[in-house]
Amino acid sequence: MEHSISNAYQCLLNYGIKPSVQRTAVMDYLMNHMTHPTVDDIYMALNPSMPTLSKTTVYNTLNLFVEKGAVRMLTIDERNARYDADVSFHAHVRCRVCGRVYDLHEVKPELFDLPHAEGFDLEAAEISYTGVCPCCKQNA
């Protein structure tokens, strides 16, 4: 089901983010494209309809979303940060053949419990796996 611009606008408000045209467009893209896009992916998709949008604006917008907890930044790809509008507890799996990143919800919730680490203030856990996706496995 596609989300509407009004859903993206409301999502920004829910996270205490002042909606702008650019911020709403970026959030709408993330909510409608659960592909774990990079800054470049988002910029290339939005630029044709928003020619004044800069890559720096996309980057800064995503950093704000991450800071406010509206989006998760994934470091599963060694070349690019990827972004996920699904902030629920779930893991990710990256296909080592095609490079796509998929959600993995079949993970025990207790894996996200943060252990006690003397002297540290732990804030988050990121769980990721690498493997071969069904499509690439079928084409091998």
Summarize the structure.
The protein has helices at 5-14, 21-32, 39-46, 55-68, 134-139, and strands spanning 72-74, 82-84, 91-95, 101-104, 128-131.
Overview of this structure, please?
With 140 residues, the protein is of the alpha+beta class. It contains 5 helices and 5 strands. The strands form 2 sheets. A 3-stranded mixed β-sheet has the order 4-3-5, with no helix packed on it. A two-stranded antiparallel sheet has the order 1-2. α1 packs across α2 (21-32) and α3 (39-46) packs across α4. The two termini are 32 Å apart. The mean pLDDT is 91.
Topology:
Layout: H1 5-14, H2 21-32, H3 39-46, H4 55-68, E1 72-74, E2 82-84, E3 91-95, E4 101-104, E5 128-131, H5 134-139
Parallel strand pairs: 3-5
Antiparallel strand pairs: 1-2, 3-4
Helix pairs in contact: 1-2, 3-4
Outline the biggest β-sheet. 3 strands, mixed
Total number of beta strands: 5
Distance between the terminal alpha carbons, to the nearest Å?
A: 32 Å
Low-confidence stretches: none
Rg, rounded, reads 16 Å
User: Helix amount, in percent?
Assistant: 25-40%
Name the helix and strand elements from N-terminus to C-terminus, one letter apiece.
HHHHEEEEEH
Number of helices: 5
Strand order of the largest sheet: 4-3-5
Mean pLDDT: 91
The portion of residues forming beta strands comes to 5-15%
Instruction: Characterize the overall form.
Output: globular
The helix-and-strand class reads: alpha+beta
